# Entry
Amino acid sequence: MVTGTLADSWPAQLAGYAVEHHASVTSTQALARVRAAAGAHRLVVVADEQRGGLGRRGRHWASPEGNLYASIVRRRGFDARAAPLFSLVAAVVVAEALAEPTVTLKWPNDILLGGRKVVGLLLDVEGDALIVGLGVNVTMSPVPEGTSLAAVGRDVDPRALLEEILLGLDVGARDLEDGSFAGWRARWLARAAWLDETVRVELGDRALVGRNRGIDEAGALLVATGEGLVTVLAGDVERVRPEDQG
# Structure
């Protein structure tokens, strides 16, 4: 079994998905979008390193060799309006696959370990295809404020981890096809970072400060402010530490 680092070679199939493995790419997400536009379904693009990985809002994502970088393509079998929910489902799937007690979920798509980022997720839509971009810090964090599985003593087989994630995504997709998100919402809330704590949400041209009340049935963030409960559809969330509160 390969542990700690990416396998030198990947199988052609994993959990019923075709696997396209590269030693180095500019971005697995960009390549997966090309494959999705060409009709790909149930495909995983995996790379040992990314030279120009992208996070949310086009941000650069440092991706040195040693971690797990993958983009998963599958056709959407549920209503397009439910597509954002698949990102939250994916976060739950990955968090549960990590099997670490201190894993929490930062809305909308970061996974924290001991309060520090260990996984980044990105959901793109290409026609009726959903593309889940995944970056797991297996052996190290490319940024000092992050962490890795190795840092907490975990020796992980990336192939086994990815296989478990793929199987979980299939279950989540079937639930969304059946119109069932309530169970996933409950599982997300059980791991929510900073629930009932004060958070600051950057909304582009302004910031919102209030109490984190979790997510609603549509996956939007709920923030309680002095003016009432605010529903946030997009934004960057950070915890306001007690010592920083006026």
